[in-house]
Amino acid sequence: MFGNFRNSDWRNGLLRDMKDPTKQLLRTDLAVVIADKFPRSKHHYLVLPVEDIDTIYELKPQHASLLEDMKALGVQKVEQLKDGFTLADFRFGFHMGAKLHRLHLHVISQDFVSDRLRKYELWNGYNTAYFMPFEDILNELKEKGKIARRPKALIDRLLQTPLVCNQCPDRFDSLGGLKSHLDNHWLEKSFKKINIA
Questions:
Q1: Whole-model pTM above 0.85?
Q2: Could you give the angle at the alpha carbon of 113 between the alpha carbons of 167 and 25, nearest 5°?
Q3: Where in the cell is it found (predicted)?
């Protein structure tokens, strides 16, 4: 059902995790939700299809309904949260140049408060056009019947984009400076929630 893989191959980590019932947060006949092993935000989940599809570039027109089911499962996971996060706090999307085996939809909160956010490229992986919104991928698949492969030069350029906050126009020379700034955004947001409550 989940395909064959070698335990020693790090690229197959998602296949191992989605097969493990103890790591399945939600599951249907079509898809599985797991927590990202290296979360880049307070909440970071992955929705993976049961069907053996490696990347967005292997999607075919008949997979449009599968993508919609995957998104619905991600929405269901967010709606289960009890810590004040809502759908408005999340983005759903795919990486332009994903390296792990098995297509996976990122469901990620936009705080980016995480000790796992350690590299410049990791930030840009979620905060530039490298992170392809779910709706864009679904629309491209419906309109063109496939997802056009993005050139490596574009991928490299996006991952080296100067650091810009995702919540305000501030720019940063270092990831450390950006992370401190994000912590401040998080504290301000948390304080507002307390005052509203």
A1: yes
A2: 110
A3: Nucleus
